[in-house]
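The following record pairs a protein chain with its ligand, adenosine monophosphate.
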Amino acid sequence: MLNLVLFGPPGAGKGTQSQKLIEKYGLIHLSTGDLLRSEITQGTELGLEAKKLMDHGILVPDEVVIGMISHKLDANRDAKGFIFDGFPRTVAQAEALDKLLESKNAPISVMIALEVNDDELEKRLLLRGKDSGRPDDANPEVIRKRIKEYNDKTAPVAGFYKNQNKFKSINGIGSVGEIFDGISNVIGSY
Ligand code: AMP
């Protein structure tokens, strides 16, 4: 099983690269952001609660996203592997993911981090906001809060995988194709 964590701040290109990885490697894409937005669209109670935080650029509670991922892992027992996109976002989530995967005997193969500086992220997210219709892409203050949440709570997750010798990083600035080639090179060695 190939289990990838695609890591990086909001706007790093995780979603774009995930789409290409799905095509090439036949993996199941698990994006907690997408799963949460789907709950919002369906008007569930979980979605309504999550929206209050997401619209302000604040992370939703760990137990909410861990529960969603656990459910999806159970629902895809025959998968060739998974791409985790936007998850884990805290060290507690990373620990919980290790436990969930332990029971499947299919640990994380590698974390691949896309490196992009804060100024470029802000520019990309504002541009994306023109088409994405996402309230959290439309407001510069919320964008800055999301980047701050990343730096405060999510960046330490890299250390968790470095300690396991599973961390690789790639320059996230360049053409979509160049970045994808870099990711494919890393995957090729697993
Ligand atoms: P994303 O689509 O990954 O940019 O996520 C959009 C928003 O959903 C984030 O700003 C958070 O509020 C929430 N979210 C998504 N994934 C997570 C996660 N793993 N942990 C906590 N909050 C999350």
